[in-house]
Amino acid sequence: MSLRTKFMLALLLTGLAAVAMVGGLAYVGMTKKVDTIRREQAAEHFHSVVTAYLQKYGSWQASPGKQGFDEFMQSGEHPPQLSDGAQDEERRPPREEGRGPQDDGRGPPRGEDGHPPPRGEGAGDRSPPPRGEGDGEGRRPPRRGGEPPFRFILADQDFKVLLGAGVYQHGEALPEAARKDARAVSVNGNVVAYVSPEGVITPSKQELQYLAAMREALWYGVSGAAVLALVLGFLLSRSLGRTLGHLTKAVRAMHGGSLLQRVPVEGKDEVAELAAAFNDMSEKLARSHEELHESHQTILAQAEQMRELSVRDALTKLHNRRHFDEQATTLFSHAVRHKRPLAVVIGDIDYFKKINDQFSHATGDAVLRQVGEILRSHMRLSDLVARYGGEEFVIAFPETELPQAAALCDKLRGIIESFPWHQVHPDLKVTMSMGVYADLAAGTAEAMLQKADALLYRAKETGRNRVCFAA
Ligand SMILES: Nc1nc2c(ncn2[C@@H]2O[C@H](COP(=O)(O)OP(=O)(O)OP(=O)(O)O)[C@@H](O)[C@H]2O)c(=O)[nH]1
């Protein structure tokens, strides 16, 4: 599940839970409150009617009883009611046991449809069916088709039932449970009766309509909250998801090797802070990686330079003896394995000591550099040339038979001899003697070189400035 979906679901559930909790609590609280107010008002009214009635006669026993009470109720002699719907109901005369609900007392008992309802079937009558005399003098006739939601029991000062509200028989003792809620009716300071509510509070039709309207409003609230949560979730998750999407994409790109990434920084919240920090880190990481790479390259270059220096002769820039020995061994192995020709050469500048002595050591160095350059510039890439030490040079010609090697060496000898050395020094003359050997049967590159050295010796012995060779 994507982060966006989770976020929207979380908002949706939170919104629904909040509305359900607040709406539910409000619904239950209001229902209870309405019931309490109705009960209190009805109780207050019934109590005041009973008080007025008993004050008129002094006591129930002295009064005309239920009949008289009903008439008293109808006569309107009792104190005026406060002012609410329940009191309007109370002004209407009570109906007698078994008569069903009545209207305002001027017509016959009617049900909702205007016909007399059957016993115990009054519209909205959810109270227990009447079983004794009197149906509860506090029971109010229905208003617009509703049975009163509760009724009252009237008992004398000894809790003997006078009016049983259809629940208790006349004269029976009021149970302890009912006495608990009983309210005393006093006449001249003496308790002459008790009034006790009876039955479960049953909402009237109008109240049921109120409650239905509340439930409907609650559902509207829940639906509105759901839509709002979805819209908000969509909008918020879009902005949140966009930045996180950029970050995820950037991190993936970094994993792919592109360390320098930038994501848009929108707003000033934590996500924006995260994006800014990411940009900063990415930049630092890329920079340090770049620096690391550069220093790595520098180290590699230096290492290569050092390696190159270690295999090069400082004066002539040709390879040195160590490098030649290593490479010559490799070339020899390759030639043997592939049965390919290989020629090795040793060249030595003639009378070089004299050059040093006669023209200076610096001139000697210049001669060495120039001879090195002549040799290097006439080699193929596959050839190997090196300064072997002092005024000695060595060459390895892979893929070269003795005649070609000897001819090339003689050519080199001629080039050295004919070089305009007078440019270095007017009286300077330079020649080179060479020994060339090209028989792999010598066994090793070193052995071949020794053979070439012997031939060089012969060249020196036989007059110098010449090439001696042998297969
Ligand atoms: N200028 C200079 N001289 C060097 C260098 N290396 C060696 N030499 C000199 O080269 C000279 C070699 O002399 P020898 O070995 O007697 O050989 P040669 O004088 O060439 O005589 P032949 O080889 O018999 O012709 C020595 O005097 C070394 O000091 C160098 O790098 N620079």
UniProtKB/TrEMBL annotation:
Q: Any stretches that span the bilayer, and where are they?
A: 217-236
UniProt-listed Pfam families: GGDEF, HAMP
Broad class of enzyme this protein falls into: transferase
List the GO terms this entry assigns under cellular component, sorted alphabetically: plasma membrane
Q: Which GO terms describe its molecular function?
A: diguanylate cyclase activity
Where does the GGDEF domain start and stop, copy by copy?
340-471
Its protein name is diguanylate cyclase
Q: What is the originating organism of this protein?
A: Duganella radicis
Q: What is the lineage of its organism?
A: Bacteria, Pseudomonadati, Pseudomonadota, Betaproteobacteria, Burkholderiales
